[in-house]
Write a structure and sequence with these properties.
mainly beta; Immunoglobulin-like; six-stranded antiparallel beta sheet; five-stranded antiparallel beta sheet; 1 helix
């Protein structure tokens, strides 16, 4: 599923948790060439030819189903980056640079997933012209970090869809979409067309955790506080506690906020922390059931003098906190039968016990103490 990332800035924790405003939206401007491309999101990078001019509309887009051109994949127009074809492998290109710097933190956390699709078409020719789409991932200085190519397509005899998905490499600030048509037929316009391009982005982290703290209160309880931002599809948080950092028990649930605020602040109070070190974490759960754990925090409590047992409910081990070093422990079921016993052991294995309610009898030299617990 997702990963938890720790950012080094002001204790900022990025947990698999966040979606940006542009999720699901097409990041490409004028993606279907219904407007003249150059000046409406696109830039020309023609390396060959002198008649490539925006005054000639057919240099950049063309109306389909006329003058021998095929119908557009959808709509009326499609991209037509060809000019006066001179053959010999001359390339004609228009491109769009998409700024994603606002999502730099997500990109650098290896959590910015892009999904691309586009349609290409080239006609049947003995010496076929070619089409190619290249995605380039570029850094802050416009340096090329990595790229993806559809490969060169010829004689497609119809519109063919090409798709690609990948995470934007760390450091990416711009994604350049390049539409390249290659002229191989001397004297003809380049017979290479493009239509219906889509580039969407999703964040693989479902919630962003800004901070998470745990501290003791004057009342002897543990107060957990955390703040999130950009929540999408968040069901809520299961609060978990451990006395050894290995075995965990769920001690509560906090539902996700339902307001439209960007940042949300949560808190949870553990009224009965165990003596010694208490480890805390929460399990963030999506509406679809997927989940991820937060970092761990801990709070310590000194022994007050009274006998304490934990965790309660117990799973595998029941721990006894007492000042006494010599005692006999007996676990008794509700029928009054001793089902387990131990001498001078402060950690008693309970894994073999059936689920239910039990009494723990502690027999000292001069007194007997009874405590009740639940076996999960």
């Amino acid at each position: 599923m997702k990963k938890i990332y720790l950012l080094s800035c002001v204790f900022l924790l990025t947990c698999l948790f966040s979606f940006f405003d542009s999720i699901g939206q097409n990041l490409i401007v004028n993606p279907s060439a219904e407007l003249e491309p150059v000046g409406n999101g696109w830039i020309a990078d023609q390396t060959i030819g002198t008649d490539c001019s925006t005054s000639n509309n057919s240099s950049w887009n063309i109306e389909g189903d006329q003058d021998g051109f095929p119908a557009a994949h959808t709509g009326t127009y499609f991209f037509f980056p060809g000019c006066d074809g001179i053959g010999g492998g001359a390339e004609y290109e228009i491109y769009q640079a998409i700024d994603i710097s606002n999502d730099a933190a997500t990109v650098d956390a290896d959590a910015y997933l892009i999904n691309f699709s586009g349609y290409m078409r080239s006609g049947e020719k003995d010496i076929a012209d070619a089409t190619e789409i290249i995605l380039e991932f570029r850094g802050v200085t416009d340096n090329l970090i990595s790229s993806f190519s559809t490969g060169s397509a010829t004689n497609t005899d119809g519109w063919v869809e090409f798709t690609h998905s990948q995470k934007a490499p760390s450091g990416t600030r711009t994604i350049r979409v390049r539409l390249i048509a290659t002229s191989n037929t001397i004297g003809d316009p380049v017979d290479g067309y493009f239509d219906d391009l889509s580039l969407t982005a999703t964040n693989t982290l479902p919630v962003t955790l800004v901070s998470f703290t745990a501290a003791s209160s004057s009342k002897g309880s543990s107060l957990l506080k955390w703040e999130t931002t950009n929540e999408i599809n968040n069901k809520g948080f299961y609060i978990e506690r451990s006395v050894n950092g290995v075995s965990w028990e769920t001690i509560g649930f906090v539902a996700a906020a339902v307001d439209n605020e960007n940042n949300h602040q949560y808190r949870f109070t553990d009224e009965k922390p165990a003596v010694g070190i208490n480890f805390y974490r929460f399990k963030q759960v999506d509406i679809d059931g997927r989940y991820e754990y937060s970092p761990t925090r801990n709070v310590s409590y000194q022994y007050s003098g009274r006998t304490v047992i934990f965790p309660n409910p117990a799973d595998n081990i029941l721990t006894i906190v007492t000042r006494e070093s010599r005692f006999k422990a007996q676990i008794i079921n509700l029928s009054g039968k001793v089902v387990a016993s131990a001498d001078n052991q402060k950690n008693i294995i309970t894994q073999q016990l059936p689920s239910g309610v039990y009494n723990l009898r502690l027999i000292y030299d001069n007194r007997v103490e009874n405590l009740r617990f639940i076996k999960r």
